[in-house]
Structures are given as C-alpha cells and as structure tokens.
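Incident review: delayed structure delivery

Summary: a single-chain prediction request sat in the queue longer than the usual turnaround. Root cause was a stuck worker, restarted by the on-call engineer. No data loss occurred. The affected request and its eventual output are reproduced below so the record is complete for anyone auditing the incident later.

Affected input:
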Amino acid sequence: MIYSLLILLLINVSSSTEKSCPGTLITSLHQKNCTDRATNETAYYLNRDDCIPKCSICPTVVPNSNCSTDSDCIAGYNCDRRCGPGSKYQVHKCESSVDCYQYNPRCTCDYYCVLPEIEDDDVACMAYHSNIPAYVDKWWTAKKFKPICDDDGYWEPKQCKGGLQGRCLCYSSMGVRLFGEALYTKAENMTCACSRRKSELESAGRSYVSFHCDSLGNYEKLQCDMEKELCWCVVPQTGEVTAPFVPLAAMKKLPCYSAGTVGAQYLRQCESKKFATVMIIKKLKTHGVVTVESDTLLCDADGSYGAYSISSGIAYCTWRDNKQIETWQANINGLSRPLTCSKLFSAMRSECNFSFIDIFAIDCARDYKMYQHSLACDGGGEYVLLQMFIDDKGQKQYYCVDDKGFAKTDMLDDASTNCTAIY
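Output delivered after worker restart:
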C-alpha cells in the first residue's frame, strides 16, 4: 500500500513538472550572447524565467513603487532607504522618517530604486549594458570598456581592457578591483579564482584569510589556513584540492611544497606581521577591549607589501618589497580621496580602525614600476585623469582615463574637460 502511494506521488510530481517545463532543455545560451546583440538603442539580458531561456530587452523605466531587494530594480539601480515620496527627496538617505522631516514634514523614510553615487566602486555589471537614460546622460555607457557579465548579471572575475595591447584585471562580483593582473597576451590561464574567493571570505567577516594568490589572481599550489593550522594542495586555476589536508607542522610533506618557492615558513614577511597583529587584536577583544589601535600595514594577496606605507602622516607609494617608488607621496591630511584599509588592496575590513575611509588609488606609480608607461601621474602616484597627447602635427590632444589609466574617451580638443563626469 505504501509502495503504491509512493509510486502515485512520484507520477504526480513528474506530471506536474512536465506540465510546467516538459522535457530537459540543454542550451549554450549565456549572458554574453545577449549583451553581444545590443544596439545603440536596445540592450538585452538573459531571461531564465520561462522554461526556454531567451534574450529579453532590458527595461529602462525605474519602478515607482517601493522595493524590497535590488532585484526589484532595473540594472544599475539599488534598493536603498531614501526620503519620499517624490523623486526630488530621494537623493537624501535616511534611517527613519525623522531624518526626512527637515526636507518636508510629509516625507517618509522607505525603500526606493535609486542610482548609486557616482564615486561608488561597486556598480551592477548590467548597468554598463542597459542603455538607461540616466546612465547615458552621465557617460555611464562606458565608451571604452563594458565588463563581461555572468549569467546572473554579476561581473566575471577576469575583465580585460585595452584590446590586444591592454591588460586583464581581477574584480569582485560587483566590480571592485581585486589583486591580480596580466598583460592580455599572457592572461590565457588567468581565472582570478583565488582573489575572488579571498575577497568573498573577507567580506563575509573572516578575521584573516591566509590564502596565497599568484600575480594572476589564481591560487598558488600550496595553501594554508593559519587560523586552523591546516595546509593542502590545489589546482591553481580552480582551487580544487589535490592532496589531503595536513597539520601546518607537516606542510613540507605535501607534494606541492617547494623549498625554493615557499621557504621555511608559509607566511611571507608582510603578512607575517599582519597576522600577528590580527591575532593580538582578536585576543584583546575576547578580553573586552572595544577599540584597538593598529598599524596601517597593507599586504597584497600574495603576501607581499601593499601599495603604500605611512610614516609621520605621509603616505609613500611602495613596491612589493616595501621600498618607496620614485618620489610619489601624499600628506594623508590633505588628500582629496583619503586612504582606505579595504577594497582595492584586500586588507581586512573588520580590523580597520583608521579615520580615512575612502580610496587612495596609486595605480599609476605601481604601473610605472611594472610597465614603464608614459602616462602622467600626479604627486600622490594617481593617474592624471585628463592626459595630454601630441599628435604627428605637433598639436595637443587630450583624452580622459579612469583611475587605472585606461582611456574613457576618444581624443578631445578641450583641455578643460571634466573627466570626473565621465564614468
């Protein structure tokens, strides 16, 4: 009897499934197939709502009703707490309706679909492809670069800029620059899997992630978790485990261990100091200490020193060995874009106790060290956003670049162009 009921139940479930989506569909349709169909007037996204995936036209009308999650909004818009109703009040962020009374006594604090601030790092991947008027007006159509989106609309880990002579860089799912890069011609095996995973764990609140990523953002063959004191071997492109987990003390027994590459200990000089600091802070907090002052030590994902060091209120552009690059430096009290302890250099967000909370982008200095480029850097090691070029007729031409030095416009005649208005 029970067996018969079970068979009947399976038949009903199967029948219900076949009615909603008959058969099994195998398709090679991906988001890139849809974005490649885009024209100047129409953009497409991968629609998987029905049984048969298809490319649908991206909506460009922002919902007027309240939202609950970002998925309720069109590409490029976030669901955020703002004052309303009335779009002119929605530029003001709020926590409660009391925050809105100063603008209008009838204002209420609620969730609305709004554009993120232009200076935000994280931008939805499909925002570059959706042809939303608000983005077009602000040059958000990214004239020289549009990221490749995965099937869920997030950034692919590896993004390449500048064509065959350009570079490939690692990014988070929301477009935050991560550790790892390579010239386009040398990026065939680049996956950024290690940089992406390390960033995800840090964002999830891990106090310290001791994975070692190589210069491509891939995994190094030997990996150790210093907090759990375990080591193992992996496939560099994917992180797939290839040898049993062993105690840290038995690291040298692993087949992927190399004395010439790893040395006597797993942690490198910079991260060894950082890890010791993190463990001390963690210990103090377990004893009730609320605020702990710590050094502004930054380490890259391969264990080398980060892009700057601070001494007596001055930030110096530094190379991986912690030596200063040329004469690039900046007074941290006078920076237009203050220092950060997160995002670009993948430092631990939970342990940052600094008063400077934005981005100090010194890519120009480090790129000069690596590639000897001819672009102009400012005194603090950042790219000058309006670059000058003298053509074969001796005439001055100008073009805008982003904070990584990639062109955002064609050649311009106007030396007064405001490049910050061009995303």
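Verification: The longest helix spans residues 2-20.
Action items: add queue-age alerting; document worker restart procedure.
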